[in-house]
Each structure stands twice: as C-alpha cells, then as structure tokens.
Design goal:
Layout (H helix, E strand, L loop, with lengths): L2 H11 L1 H12 L11 H14 L3 E6 L13 E8 L2 E11 L18 E2 L2 E3 L3 H21 L4 E9 L10 H6 L10 E4 L7 E6 L1 E10 L14 H21 L16 E9 L19 E10 L5 H18 L4 E10 L2 E2 L5 H14 L4 E5 L5 H6 L6 E3 L14 E3 H19 L4
Parallel strand pairs: 3-6, 3-7, 7-15, 8-14
Antiparallel strand pairs: 1-2, 2-6, 4-5, 5-16, 8-13, 9-11, 9-12, 10-11
Helix pairs in contact: 1-4, 1-10, 2-4, 4-10, 6-7, 8-10
C-alpha cells in the first residue's frame, strides 16, 4: 500500500475525531460583531495542536479595528517543522461567525449531527473547513513523519468584518512573508470539488445627505435629508443599477448572478437615533437633517476602481442638478481590488491533482462573489500562491440551519492531505 492510500484510510479512521472537533468549534459562539470568545477558540486549537507536536503562537492584533480589552482580537498560528528543509504549506481559517438570525430549527451553537450533517452557525463557514485542515495535517504527519518543510495552521479573527484584526494584521507582521510561507490553502466553503482562485473587488462607502432640522409640524421650514436620500435611491434605480447589469466578467465567478457588477444598499439611517428597547415614549417631531447610506459595490477584474467610484459620484451630481439645496458627503470605508491566482500556480496544480485522485473527476475553477482573506495574503503578504479550497456548500453560508456534510469534510481532508504529500512528501 502506498503513502497516498494510507493517508486516505488514516483520515477515514479519524471520522469520529473530525466530527467531535467540528462540534467543539461550533459550540464556542465566536460571534462577530462584536468579536466574542476568540481567545477561547484559540486556546482549544492551541491545546490540540501542541499535543501533536506543533509550536504555537497566540497573537493579539493590538490596535486593529475592533480590538479592545473587552473584545480582544486573538489569533493562533501553529507550525510543525519537518525532518528536512523544504517549503511551508499554510492552512488559514477564520474563527469568527456572523450573527445567528431567525429561522433556525436546530440550536445554532449545538453542533447537532443529523442525517450525516453537522448543524450550527459556522459549520459551513468555516469551522468545518478548519477541522478538516487540522485532521488532514495530523494524518499527514502521522503517515509521513519524515516530510520536508513545514506545515502551518492558523485560526484568525474578523474575516467576516474585513479580516483587519486577523490575516491583515498577521501579514503586516510578516507571518505570510513568502520567505517563510510558500503555499496557502484557505478552507472556505466553495464546494469540495472546486478550487477558488480569487474574488471580485469591493468598494464600501457611506453616503450622507444633509438637510436642516425643523419642527415636524412645519416641515416647510426645514429640509428633509431623508427625502434627499430617497432621490439618490431613485436615481440609482433609474441609471446605476441598469448600468451595472450590463457589465460582465470572464472571471469564473459563482453563482451566475455574480458574473455581473453588483451594488447592495447595506443600511440606511436617517433622523433620530433609535431608542433603547425599554424606552416607552414617542419620538420627537423633527425634520431629519442627516441621512446616511452604506453601499457595498462589488466589481470585476475588468473594471477600474476610479471608474467604480465615479459612477456613484455621477448619480449624486445628477441629483444635485435636479434638487435645490442638495448637499452630500461620501466617505470611503473599504476598498479591495479583485485578485485571481493563475491556474499554473503550484498550489493550484497540487490541489487539482488531489481532487482528481480522491473524487475521480477534474476540479472546477471558480472565483468567489465576495472577498475573503486571500486579499490580505496577496496585497500585504505579497504571496500569490494562494487559493481557497474546503468543504461546505457556498449557498449555505450565513443562512439559518447552516450545516456541513461529514462525508464532504472527509473527502476535503483527503484532498488537503494528498496535497501535503504532493508538496512536502518524498519525491520519486
């Protein structure tokens, strides 16, 4: 029996361990925002990997967005050195999960197993992928202890809110320097037979319209900022949304609807601030003098970021020409350029071979509709040999009754382990 076959059997033998590890990760409610229990989940990963011979570092992202003494941004990086010099393969998973939301029929943090699936917030996105990468690494080290190079596993903060307290911070500190890490696999849930090469770009901005406060019984003495924002939304519907629908990409973005440019109105806040839930009084009668809208513009590799911004300013200037006393401000919140790793990159080729060997079919190459932490590894770390590959169905992310299939995790772990064998195992 060759090493590849032994690896396949070794991972199958660790099925119960994989399920228990995934459940343990789900049961730590690492909600972001605000960023709860990050240290708890890092400690769980730390205890486990130290037992398997990894050297671990727990790193707090001091000063990063969101970091505070109440909600510290903790990360863990674990490294296992091989018996011989060689390259490093790094598995990066984010530890945070989004809000639970409504509509669940299972306990969001129970890790319930039913019909071959593990349910819970983060099961798919992406604690199942984190668990699969840990099992893959442990199995590879057990079967091939004389490997060359190093295996790293990281659990990082805040991917769901931009990753600035996680991978971005680590990249700035040199943890993803190409001299110490050569291959990165991010086990995001893009489906087990897909290799994700990159993602679309994003431009987040806050638009504020201004008015003048006055008594609500005499609105003609004021200037309603919410009505101004309504005009902005109308112009977006009239001109901007139809324009975006005409823009298409050659990137293999999934799902199909994401092959065009998109814009989401993330939030609108106008007028008085909402009171606490225990407030029983009525609002005061005022004309709102401010209205703020946050927009989430996703753009394609064929588009220029300056053009993306100008399209929004064109909307605002069109409204300004048509409305008296229209005033606005725009504040950029975030910009990320599109990225796409070449199919010829070593990590892509290795994972593609492993998918064919484990599943008996060719891997699909896709691009994510939303950004993930590859953006920081690419932009800050200057490491281009990076992909996303992991278990889970993309459409389940952030949904009620989120789950990950146990068989999918096993097969993904086998792919990851065979990729380690290909990149770090004995040659010839």
């Amino acid at each position: 029996m060759d090493l590849a076959e032994k690896l396949m059997l070794e991972i199958e033998a660790r099925r119960a361990d994989l399920v228990e590890l995934t459940q343990a990760l789900i049961r730590i409610p690492t909600l972001n925002p605000p960023g709860e229990h990050y240290r708890d989940i890092c400690d769980l990963i730390d205890r486990r990997l130290v037992r398997h011979g990894f050297h671990t570092d727990l790193i707090r992202a001091f000063g990063a967005p969101g970091d505070s003494d109440k909600y510290p941004r903790w990360n863990i990086v674990a490294r296992k050195e091989g018996a011989h010099p060689g390259e490093c393969v790094h598995f990066n998973s984010h530890i945070d999960v989004v809000e639970v939301g409504r509509g669940w029929t299972t306990d969001p943090f129970g890790g319930e197993v039913k019909d071959g699936k593990i349910y819970g917030r983060g099961a798919c996105d992406m604690k199942g992928g984190l668990a699969a990468s840990i099992i893959a690494a442990e199995a590879f080290i057990a079967i091939c202890p004389d490997f060359a190079g190093a295996v790293e596993i990281s659990g990082t903060a805040d991917e769901e809110s931009g990753g600035f307290g996680g991978v971005a911070y680590l990249a700035e500190k040199g943890w993803f320097n190409p001299e110490r890490v050569q291959h990165v696999i991010i086990p995001e849930p893009l489906n087990k037979d897909r290799i994700c090469l990159g993602h679309r770009g994003v431009w987040w901005a806050e638009i504020e319209t201004h008015g003048e406060i006055a008594h609500g019984s005499m609105p003609f003495l004021g200037d309603c900022a919410v009505r101004h924002m309504g005009a902005v939304m109308h112009e977006m519907e009239t001109s901007l949304f139809p324009l975006l629908a005409t823009k298409r990409t050659d990137m293999p973005v999934v799902p199909e609807g994401a092959k065009q440019s998109t814009l989401n109105i993330n939030s609108i806040h106008g007028g008085e601030a909402e009171q606490d839930p225990d407030y029983t009084g009525l609002p005061s009668p005022c004309v709102p003098d401010s209205c703020r809208m946050v927009i989430d513009r996703r753009f394609l590799i064929e588009e220029d970021i300056d053009e993306v911004q100008q399209e929004v300013f064109n909307v605002l200037e069109t409204v300004k020409e048509a409305r008296a006393d229209f005033r606005y401000d725009v504040r950029e919140l975030q910009r990320v350029l599109p990225t796409m790793t070449e199919k010829s990159a070593p990590v892509v080729q290795s994972v593609a071979r492993a998918v064919a060997e484990v599943m008996g079919k060719e891997a699909q190459y896709v691009v994510s509709p939303g950004t993930y932490d590859q953006k920081h590894i690419d932009r800050i770390g200057r490491l281009k040999n990076c992909i996303a590959y992991g278990p889970g169905i993309l459409d389940l992310a952030h949904k009620p009754d989120e789950y990950v299939g146990i068989d999918d995790m096993i097969e993904s772990a086998q792919v990851m382990a065979r990729s380690l064998l290909d990149l770090l195992g004995p040659k010839g």
